[in-house]
Amino acid sequence: MAGGRGTRLESRVEKPLYEIGGVAMIDRVLTALEASAVGRITVAVSPNAPDTRDYLVELDCTRSLEVDGVVEPLEPVTPAKPVWVIESAGDGYVSDLGSILESNSIPISTPVLTAAADLPLLEGATVDGVLERYRRRVRARGRDGGTDGEAPSMTVCVPTALKRRLELSVDTTLESDRHLAPTGVNVVGTSNETMIARSYDHRLACNVNRRTDARVAKTYCSDRDRDGEEKEEAFR
């Protein structure tokens, strides 16, 4: 999901294009999804973020773009994993996601994993961990006869205490539990039932909504990128 305004970040560039450690957040999230077990990646943009839309269209990995309900195919350059771009109305997360799932232009079947574009610490292993946790919980509920053949949704949350300990802002909490903050990673199922999955992973806790969050993310990304470069050099 890459169609938000990102006004709290107070940046001249759109939120998905905001760079953490010299890399746009949308690129970091795409890299994580490409390294995960998800089969296809669909990026939802909106009129709120036209530069992000243009940026994605220029990427070699882009498969198609939906504008006013019409899909315009683009020439792919052998992407590591199929990536599609779809334009939403920009009316908010819930509304945009609903319209995307109902769209017939790009086939998307539930359950589907959704991830916000402001999670620069996200990694493929983190995504796979969420997917595996979802599968285990659905299987367990199925054995207990609790799903009626329908797949529930799952909201991944972190304790607000973790975000504060990491010096991250807490702007949103669950209505049912003010001690939990949504991470921006969810699994959308076919039923109205929603499971809550609690995580203590700092990679899921780091939503970049404000400049202070960006500074925290930059520190973690710098350490991770440096470790990756050292491992690559050792491999050579």
UniProtKB/TrEMBL annotation:
Domain MobA-like NTP transferase: 1-137
A matching Pfam family: NTP_transf_3
Record carries keyword Transferase: yes
Name by which UniProt lists this protein: NTP transferase domain-containing protein
UniProt keyword Transferase, yes or no: yes
Protein source organism: Natronosalvus rutilus
InterPro entries the record matches: MobA-like_NTP_Trfase, Nucleotide-diphossugar_trans
Protein keywords: Transferase
Domain of life: Archaea
GO molecular function per UniProt: nucleotidyltransferase activity
